[in-house]
Design a protein that fits this description.
heterodimer; A: about 270 residues; ABC transporter involved in vitamin B12 uptake, BtuC; B: alpha/beta; 6-stranded mixed sheet; 3-stranded antiparallel sheet; about 25% helix
C-alpha cells in the first residue's frame, strides 16, 4: 500500500475514499433515522441527468451533477410534503426520468462509454479539480451536520415535535435533502451513482447492530465507512477488481459480521441480567 | 394576562371531512384540562390544532395571544405526541432523546450547558428513568418509552404541557409515575392539556374536562366523582351528560 502511494492517481483516490467514507455514513445516519433510506438512491438517479448534461455540453459532469441533484433533492422534498398519498409514485417518476435522461444525454454526446464510470464509479480516475470539488463538498457536509446536527436530530426523530419546538421544519427538511445531494456527488466518483446509497445506508445498518445511541451510531458508521472505502480501494488495486462494487461488498461483509457480533453481545447481556 | 390557549369557532377539515365543527375553548393558566370523548371525535385534532400542527379551515387559535404561525416563544410549550414508540430508524439513548427536549431553549452555536444537563437529569429522575439513561430508548417497554417522551417535554421546562393520550397502553406503574410527575408540575403552576380515554390515577388532578362528540364540545365541567359501578377500578370514566359542578380553584 505504502509504495502505491507514490502514484499521484492513487493518492488522490485514497483521499477521495477517506472523504466519502466519512461524509456518506454521517449524512446517512440522519436519513436512516428519518426512515428515508432510499433517498440517496433517488438523488443518485436524478444526478445521472446532470452527468449526461455535462457530457453533452462538454462542461464538468461533476458540477452539473451537483446542480441537478440539489434541484432534484428539493423536488423530492416538496413532493414528499405535498402528496400524502401517491408520493412514492411521484418519486418513482423522478427517479426513472433522471436515469433515462442521463442515458439519453450521454448517448447524444457520443460519450456513453464515459457514463459507466459515473454509474459504477472509477475512483482511480479522479483528477485534481474533481478532488478539490469532492473535498470542498465533504467539508461542507460535515460543517452543516456539526452546526445543525441537534436540530436535524429532532426533525429526523419526530417532525411534529420539531414543529412544536419552533424549529424551522421546512428549511431543515430542505437542508438535509440538499446535504444528501452533496454527499451523492461526493460518493459518485468512488462507488458510482447506482451504489451511492449503499455507502449512506450499509455502514449505518452495520453500526446500529452494535450501538445504543445516536452519536455512537454516527461514530461507528463513519469508522465502518472509512474502513470499507479505503479497504475496498486497496483490495481493488491489489486484485484488479472494480473499486465501487468492491467497496460496497466490503461494507456488506462488515454489516454481516456486525449482525453476528450484535446477536452474541445481546445474548451475553441477557445471560448476565 | 394572556391565556395559554384560546380557540374561537375552530373548524378543521381533513381530506374534506369536517373533524372539528366550531370549537370555542379557552385554557386558563394553572388549569389541568382533560379532553375526552369517543374515538374519532376529534380530540387529537383539537389539541394539535391548538399548537398549529394542523391548520384551521375557519376560526382562529392563539397561543399566549399570538397565532401559532407567528408564535416565537416555543420554549413555553411542551408537547407529548401520541406515539407507540419514541420513533427514529436509528438507536438513540434515553438521555439523547430527553436532551433533545431542550432544543427550544438552545441557540445553534451554544454547546450543551450545565443548566441543560441539570434539567435533563431532573426530567429523568421525575419519570424514574435515570437508571436507564444510557440504554437505547427503542429497546424499552411501551410504558417506559412513553415516560421517555414525557421526560423530553419536562426537560424543556415549559409553562404548558400538551399531551396526547399519555396513558394509552401504559402499565399501571408508569401511569402512577405520570400522575405524580404531573402533580408536581401543577403544584409549580404549570398548565396541562391532555387527551385521555381513561383518566386512571390522573383523575384527582383534573380541574376541568371537555367532552368532544362529532367535532363539537358536548359537555364541559369538572369530571364527576365516580359512584357505585363507576367507582370500580378500571371503569372508563366518561360521563358526557353528568351535571357540571363548580370548578376547583387552584390558589
Amino acid at each position: 500500500m505504502i509504495e502505491l502511494l507514490s502514484y499521484d492517481f492513487l493518492r488522490r483516490a485514497l483521499i477521495a475514499a477517506v472523504l466519502v467514507g466519512i461524509a456518506a455514513p454521517a449524512v446517512g445516519t440522519f436519513i436512516v433515522q428519518r426512515r428515508l433510506a432510499l433517498l440517496g438512491d433517488g438523488i443518485g438517479h436524478i444526478a445521472l441527468t446532470g452527468v449526461g448534461l455535462g457530457l453533452l455540453t462538454r462542461s464538468s459532469p461533476t458540477i452539473l451533477a451537483l446542480v441537478v441533484s440539489a434541484l432534484g433533492a428539493v423536488a423530492i422534498e416538496l413532493l414528499r410534503v405535498r402528496t400524502r398519498t401517491g408520493g412514492d409514485v411521484a418519486l418513482a417518476l423522478l427517479f426513472y426520468g433522471g436515469l433515462a435522461g442521463g442515458v439519453l444525454f450521454a448517448n447524444l454526446s457520443g460519450g456513453s462509454a464515459n457514463l459507466s464510470s459515473y454509474l459504477f464509479g472509477s475512483i482511480s480516475s479522479v483528477g485534481t479539480t474533481d478532488l478539490y470539488i469532492v473535498a470542498g463538498l465533504a467539508v461542507a457536509v460535515i460543517v452543516i451536520l456539526a452546526v445543525f446536527g441537534r436540530e436535524l436530530f429532532v426533525l429526523c426523530q419526530d417532525e411534529e415535535v420539531a414543529r412544536a419546538s419552533g424549529l424551522p421544519v421546512r428549511f431543515l427538511s430542505l437542508l438535509i435533502a440538499v446535504t444528501a445531494a452533496l454527499t451523492v456527488v461526493v460518493a459518485m466518483r468512488a462507488v458510482g451513482l447506482l451504489l451511492v446509497s449503499a455507502l449512506m445506508v450499509v455502514p449505518v445498518a452495520a453500526a446500529q447492530q452494535l450501538t445504543r445511541g445516536f452519536m455512537t451510531t454516527i461514530g461507528l458508521a463513519v469508522v465502518v465507512g472509512v474502513v470499507s472505502s479505503v479497504g475496498g480501494l486497496w483490495v481493488s488495486v491489489d486484485a484488479d477488481f472494480a473499486p465501487g462494487p468492491t467497496i460496497v461488498l466490503l461494507a456488506m461483509a462488515v454489516f454481516l459480521a456486525a449482525v453476528g457480533t450484535g446477536k452474541l453481545v445481546r445474548m451475553r447481556r441477557t445471560d448476565v441480567t | 394576562m394572556t391565556v395559554p390557549f384560546r380557540m374561537t369557532g375552530g373548524e378543521v377539515r381533513l381530506d374534506r371531512r369536517p373533524v372539528l365543527r366550531g370549537v370555542d375553548l379557552t385554557v386558563e393558566p394553572g388549569e389541568v384540562l382533560a379532553v375526552m370523548g369517543p374515538n374519532g371525535s376529534g380530540k387529537s385534532t383539537l389539541i394539535r390544532s391548538l399548537l398549529g400542527l394542523i391548520p384551521l379551515s375557519a376560526g382562529r387559535v392563539e397561543l399566549y395571544g399570538v397565532p401559532p404561525a407567528r408564535f416565537k416563544d416555543w420554549k413555553r410549550v411542551g408537547y407529548v405526541p401520541q406515539r407507540l414508540s419514541v420513533g427514529g430508524g436509528v438507536p438513540a439513548t434515553v438521555r439523547e432523546v430527553v436532551s433533545s427536549g431542550r432544543i427550544a431553549r438552545q441557540s445553534r452555536f451554544r454547546p450543551f450547558s450545565a443548566a441543560d444537563r441539570r434539567a435533563v437529569d431532573r426530567a429523568l429522575e421525575a419519570v424514574g428513568m435515570a437508571h436507564r439513561a444510557r440504554d437505547s430508548a427503542q429497546e424499552l417497554s411501551g410504558g417506559q418509552q412513553q415516560r421517555v417522551l414525557i421526560a423530553r417535554a419536562l426537560a424543556g421546562e415549559p409553562d404548558v404541557f400538551v399531551m396526547d393520550e399519555p396513558t394509552a397502553g401504559v402499565d399501571a406503574a408508569s401511569q402512577e409515575t405520570l400522575a405524580r410527575t404531573l402533580r408536581d408540575q401543577v403544584a409549580e403552576g404549570r398548565t396541562v392539556v391532555l387527551v385521555a380515554h381513561e383518566l386512571g390515577p390522573m383523575e384527582p388532578l383534573i380541574t376541568r374536562s371537555v367532552v368532544l362528540e362529532n367535532g363539537l364540545i358536548s359537555h364541559e365541567g369538572v369530571p364527576p366523582e365516580p359512584k357505585g359501578e363507576c367507582a370500580r377500578p378500571g371503569h372508563d370514566h366518561v360521563h358526557p351528560h353528568a351535571p357540571a359542578e363548580e370548578p376547583h380553584l387552584l390558589s
